[in-house]
Design brief:
Elements: H1 3-9, E1 14-18, E2 24-26, H2 27-43, E3 51-55, H3 62-70, E4 75-78, H4 85-95, E5 102-106, H5 108-121, E6 127-131, E7 140-141, H6 142-146, E8 161-165, E9 175-178, H7 193-198, E10 206-209, H8 216-228, E11 231-234, H9 240-249, E12 254-257, H10 259-266, H11 270-273, E13 283-286, H12 293-303, E14 307-312, E15 319-322, H13 324-329, E16 333-339, E17 341-345, E18 358-363, E19 370-372, E20 389-393, E21 399-404, E22 409-411, E23 414-416, H14 418-426, E24 431-441, E25 445-454, H15 460-468, E26 479-482, H16 496-513
Parallel strand pairs: 1-11, 3-4, 3-5, 4-8, 5-6, 6-7, 10-11, 10-12, 12-13, 13-14, 25-26
Antiparallel strand pairs: 1-2, 8-9, 9-19, 14-15, 15-16, 16-21, 17-18, 18-20, 20-21, 22-23, 24-25
Helix pairs in contact: 1-2, 2-3, 4-5, 9-10
Length: 514
């Protein structure tokens, strides 16, 4: 993203707007303010290769910070602002742990936690801390940092890079650093060009971003839209009706969702749906978590055949894409590769024929987009990469996911894949959300346990029978637990560790009641 390109031609074009408040930035304003922040960072010793960490909720300052880092050669690192101080300490220690001077930009909501972490890490002498509102002692107010600074570029502009974190659904998130290229930001190579073409993204796009900006998909899509001169409409936080209102009010053309958001949109009352016009909404994208064929069909009955899906690892090993038309003729697929190739192997790494479930590997193109500084990253003997997903290819080369290797339930020696059962449960008219996990069983080793959110009265027996009518009997849950809300991250991914804790607590309560 280099706002100068757009600002030179269309300075008054809308770049970014917050859906709720209406706060907005033109490309001319984004260019000027990101230059001012760039000059501030340079004046405080933050040079190419240094970290620029963002710990704040979705706000109008977000694109200013990202643009400043991407035009000054910094590692732009968005971090989940929902983390506890302990979790935040681990991530900031990793992000700021080098010798290079860096900066952290935060908000009043997170500033005290960030201050506590910086004090704990003892790196205050080389880390510049800013807060966009109510700065605590030792922090610079964001507007004060920009005030009086030049609105023209710093003389040594170089392209920055992104640092993205894995979801951390089963452990501490891992950092994946994009390669830092020694080029001027105006000469940045196009990223995800094939996807942008499939989605018909261009300068006329008005893109609704309803998820937290620190997540890989919203971050990436926003950069794509701003690079092309389109407009990003950002929700402060996800709310189903607010999302529809934003599509109507701002005449949104494109949007990106995780499946749980789509479920909550579908479950809105019909009279609420009817209040909003979706007349310009021509492309919707789902990514970040598996989207069932039934959910896609329900959405497209409402919106028309506009729901595209994009699947890939944040690490950048490879990606697949499926159009609305292919999704309807190949239900359940996540598509064909947009970059690299897909291979399915058994546990020994031997390639499996079409139709057989195995580990999904991406054969990256010549240059992998990210590098992982952590340990234990799986690499095939041919250099292929995986994030541990299981799936299969059909004869036409369409990929279908079966779940995560670490989530597979082995009951009586038989492999059971939770995603298949979750899709069936989610199709029940009174189920809002569902998760399936293996829990200890003295006879079979593991049993299938379902944890569900519901919108009305429904019994465990009814849900078990619902599954038995649609699945092989051994796949149906042996146990169903009801919760007010499943432990999903704001990105839509299920937090399996929290889910296991929830099940353990539920089991403990049941024992105490006996």
């Amino acid at each position: 993203m280099y706002p100068a390109k757009i600002a030179q031609r269309h300075p008054d074009a809308q770049a970014y707007v917050m859906a709720g408040s209406g706060d907005s930035l033109t490309y001319g304003e984004l260019e000027a303010r990101s230059n001012q922040l760039a000059h501030f960072l340079r004046a405080h010793g933050v040079r190419r290769g240094g970290p620029l960490v963002i710990v704040m909720e979705n706000r109008i300052e977000w694109p200013v910070v990202v643009a400043a880092g991407m035009r000054t050669g910094l590692y732009v690192t968005p971090i989940n602002w929902h983390l506890t101080v302990t979790e935040l300490t681990a991530l900031l220690a990793e992000s700021l742990g080098g010798e290079a001077p860096g900066a952290v930009v935060t908000s009043a909501r997170c500033a005290q936690a960030v201050a506590d972490v910086l004090d704990r890490l003892g790196c205050g002498d080389r880390i510049t801390a800013l807060s966009v509102d109510d700065p605590p002692p030792g922090f610079t107010a964001f507007e004060e940092a920009l005030a009086g600074r030049p609105t023209t570029p710093v003389p040594d502009e170089r392209l920055g890079a992104r640092v993205l974190y894995s979801g951390g659904t089963t452990g501490r998130p891992k950092a994946f650093r994009q390669r830092l290229l020694d080029v001027h930001p105006a000469d940045a190579p196009a990223r995800h060009g094939a996807l942008a073409k499939k989605l018909e993204l261009g300068a006329d796009a008005v893109f609704l971003s309803p998820a937290p900006n620190y997540h890989a998909a919203p971050f990436t899509f926003q950069l794509m839209v701003l690079s092309l001169g389109g407009t990003v409409v950002c929700l402060e936080r996800f709310d189903a009706e607010a999302a529809l209102a934003a599509i109507d009010r701002y005449r949104v053309t494109h949007s990106q969702w995780v499946p749980t958001m789509l479920v909550r949109l579908l479950r809105l009352p019909d009279d609420v749906k009817a209040r909003y016009r979706l007349r310009d909404h021509r492309v919707a994208v789902t990514s970040g978590a598996p989207c069932s064929a039934e959910l896609k069909e329900d959405v497209m009955r409402w919106w028309g055949p506009i729901l595209h899906e994009y699947y890939g690892a944040s690490e950048g090993y490879g990606h697949t894409y499926v159009s609305p038309q292919d999704a309807l003729t190949h239900p359940g697929t996540v598509g064909k590769p947009l970059s690299g190739r897909v291979h399915i192997t058994d546990e020994q790494g031997t390639v499996l024929p079409p139709g057989q479930i195995g580990k999904v590997w991406f054969e990256p193109e010549a240059s992998t987009a990210y590098r992982n500084d952590g340990d234990g990253e799986p690499v095939h003997r041919h250099g292929w990469r995986t994030v541990g997903d299981l799936g299969w290819l059909d004869e036409e080369g369409f990929l279908y996911l079966s779940g995560r290797e670490s989530h597979t339930i082995i009951s009586g020696g038989v492999n059971i894949y939770p995603i298949e059962i979750e899709n069936v449960l989610s199709a029940h008219p009174r189920v809002l959300d569902a998760a399936v996990i293996g829990t200890p069983d003295p006879e079979f080793g593991e049993k299938v346990t379902a944890v569900v959110e519901t919108s009305g009265e429904v019994s465990a027996e009814e849900l078990i029978e619902w599954c038995r009518e649609r699945l092989a009997r051994f796949k149906a849950p042996k146990e169903v637990l009801f919760v007010d809300r499943l432990p999903r991250l704001p990105t839509g991914k299920l937090n399996k560790n929290s889910l296991r804790e929830m099940i353990t607590a539920s089991s403990g309560s049941a024992e105490d009641a006996r």
